[in-house]
Design brief:
The protein has helices spanning 32-35, 52-66, 83-94, and strands at 2-3, 9-10, 69-73, 99-103. The protein has three helices and four strands, in the order E-E-H-H-E-H-E. The protein has 111 residues and is of the alpha+beta class. The strands form two sheets. It has a two-stranded antiparallel ribbon. Strands 3-4 form a two-stranded parallel ribbon.
Length: 111
């Protein structure tokens, strides 16, 4: 997950969009609307970078029905996000009825 310029949480592994989309630069340099204009590389279908909310809405019925958890990695390596990004994320999680496991290589993010 990464944070956009307008503080939307998006589901993308890299901090840059270069490797997986037709764009260039850092995710944090784009607004959510600008990111939604990029195409994800891959098969013949056109895919867009999803927000965390869109991902939950898509997976929630399946996860609830199967009793599955989502494993969400909080990314924060090359670019250090301000605390409000992690706080917003955790507050948002409190409103979910999903079972979620958070993981990170940066313990400071969740303290």
């Amino acid at each position: 997950m990464q944070l956009t310029k307008d503080n939307e949480i998006v589901v993308i592994h890299d901090e840059r969009v270069d490797r997986t989309t037709d764009g260039t630069g850092y995710v944090q340099e784009y607004t959510i609307n600008e990111l939604k204009q990029l195409s994800i590389s891959g098969d013949d279908e056109i895919h867009r970078i999803p927000t965390l909310r869109e991902t939950f809405e898509l997976l929630a019925p399946y996860c609830k029905g199967k009793g599955l958890r989502l494993n969400i990695e909080l990314k924060n390596s090359e670019i250090r996000y301000e605390a409000h990004g992690a706080e917003a994320l955790l507050i948002w999680f409190q409103n979910l009825i999903l079972r979620i496991m958070l993981c990170t290589h940066h313990l400071i993010m969740i303290q």
